[in-house]
Amino acid sequence: MLITQSAGKFLKRNSTLHLGEKEVDLSIPVVAGIVNITPDSFFDGGKMEDEATMLKAVEKMVADGAGIIDVGAVSTRPGAKTVSTKEELARLLPAVKAIHAAFPDVALSVDTFRSWVAVRVIDEVGPIIINDISGGTLDSNMFETVGKLQVPYILSHIQGTLQDMQDAPHYDDLIREVAQYFAEKVKKLNKLGVKEIILDPGFGFGKTVDHNYELLNKLDALKVYQLPVMAGVSRKSMIWKALGVTPETALNGTTVVNTLALMGGADILRVHDVKEAVEAVKIFCEIKATII
Q1: Selected catalytic residue, list 270, 275, 282, 288
Q2: Per-residue pLDDT tens over the stretch 195-212
Q3: By C-alpha distance, which of 162, 183, 6, 189 is closest to 79?
Q4: Is 236 a catalytic residue?
């Protein structure tokens, strides 16, 4: 998958996300640093054991070039245990408020599939990006809520639920089915007044390793929507299973896959390792600059 002349023109489009007075410019791909306030995430669960540790990690991400900090308080790994809204908010709100206070100029996104959580966070800290891994399937009020809140929304593809999505994922035509899913949901969101939508193909959410690589190879098929695309592949099983390693030793593979995602049109890379992703963006931009 090489950057073609037409793809290069597509990648040069100028998109901006609006968060109140803040703006996130996507004319150059942006890196979103992952902050998991969870005890059971697949890679970094339990690492943010206190506020000081968390803020130190965020400080490094910002210094390394993160344009967005993505905060989540519920593990979305396959088979993860259900967490109540009360517990999610108890974890999430203090963390988001602390990050916002320490880094007021940094754009924040919140990884939640619950509309009420999104409302509470925005009431407390102001406009954020809502990163919903369920594409509105786990909360029927999410789309309407986003329309009322008028904030950017990351629309993810998923097949199944968090409990069963990896049991036996199957597609007759993966790319066609993902495209149809986005077409239907973007139409619904537009009708509800959602103006800024980011597409996330949902690597690892109801997909086999082969499905993930087919999506990666054909990521530029999403350009038909003329919407920003986010790729979240950081240290996922599609990488460490293919390499025969572990999540802890999958950084090099992650950088390779992130680079391929950029070449396929990704505008946002959601990652655990910001410095390496920012370097991938810089190299990618050098290549893109050679396209006439």
Answers
A1: 270
A2: 999 999 999 998 999 999
A3: 162
A4: yes
